[in-house]
Design brief:
Elements lengths: L10 E2 L4 E2 L20 H45 L2 H14 L1 H22 L1
Antiparallel strand pairs: 1-2
């Protein structure tokens, strides 16, 4: 009946089962000499994640500083426009259009398109 048994099953012995011999322990990756598989990989991934986290934090800080600077510039320009005379603003716009007609046309088209989208969106 021993012929019908599974190869890895073994046969009963005096103190337990006897059967195929093999090695027990952890599988090592090259260069880790006995350490569990994946420990080096997990450490490397952890370090990579920390590095990317630091980079994201640095970029977020730079973006925050950039936006803060631009918001302050826009706020100053807005205050200037509130205090400016409409006739003076119109004259400045005419001078700009005479000096840079191509840019003035592009700006006018963009503003017209934006206003059209805003008005159309309300209907």
């Amino acid at each position: 009946m021993a012929e019908n048994r599974n190869f890895n099953e073994g046969t009963p012995g005096p103190t337990g089962t006897t059967g195929t011999t093999g090695t027990t322990g952890t599988t090592a990756t090259p260069g880790t000499a006995g350490s569990p598989a994946g420990t080096g990989t997990a450490t490397a991934l952890s370090q990579t994640a920390k590095d990317y986290g630091q980079k994201v934090s640095d970029v977020a800080t730079q973006a925050k500083d950039y936006v803060s600077d631009k918001v302050s510039v826009v706020g100053e320009k807005f205050k200037e426009l509130q205090n400016a005379d409409l006739g003076e603003l119109a004259e400045n716009a005419k001078q700009y259009a005479r000096q840079k007609p191509g840019q003035a046309m592009i700006i006018s088209a963009a503003v017209g398109m934006l206003l059209g989208l805003i008005i159309r969106g309300r209907r």
